[in-house]
Amino acid sequence: MARRGAAPSRSTVPPGTSARHCDAPGCEAMGEFRAPRDRSRLRDYYHFCLEHVRAYNQAWDFYRGMSPEEIEQNLRDDSGWQRPTWPLGRLGAQAHVGPEAMRDPLGLFADTKPTPKKTAREAPPELRAALDVLGLGWPVDETGLRARYKELAKRYHPDANGGDKSSEERLKDINRAYSLIRKRLATLAQQPSQAA
Length: 196
What we know:
InterPro entries: DnaJ_domain, J_dom_sf. Residues 1-24 are annotated as: Disordered. It comes from Muricoccus vinaceus. Pfam families: DnaJ (PF00226). This is J domain-containing protein. By secondary structure, the protein is mostly helical. It has helices spanning 50-59, 68-79, 128-134, 142-156, 165-195; strands spanning 33-38, 41-48. A two-stranded antiparallel ribbon has the order 1-2. Helix 3 (128-134) packs across helix 5 (165-195) and helix 4 (142-156) runs antiparallel to helix 5. The protein is elongated. The protein starts with 32 loop residues before the first strand and ends with a helix. The mean pLDDT is 77.
């Protein structure tokens, strides 16, 4: 262990290995620092002294001799760690899920009935954005609307989020959506009584 205040050792030669001379022509210094020989042989090294490794690093250009298209392809490959990639969701889209993949040999889901999915697609056009803000589907009843509003109001209230401005803005959107849907439900409730 080095003493406190002592200069750190510059040697990068692993202990137990024999020291090498610098690979630069005419240099007799120790080759303590490794540098790759070529971009196609990154694990094959030259051994240089500090002066020559600095000169080598300054002149090194990984992309020398490559066309712009090859450079672009190399950069794209590096963004995925040289592994093949594909757009999200495309791989499984072509696979057909057969009945064998959906079978339930233990009968775990035998008593479970699929829940009908509520969608905002059948909702009146002026309510679709409001339903999305509240995360509700159409049709919606007054009690479900009130319960969802209370849940979201508690979650996004500024007092519960340390005065966060984004939570305050989200709560304003929730309030607007709630009042819009509530007014529409009130008008829908009055329409049958007027027709009778």
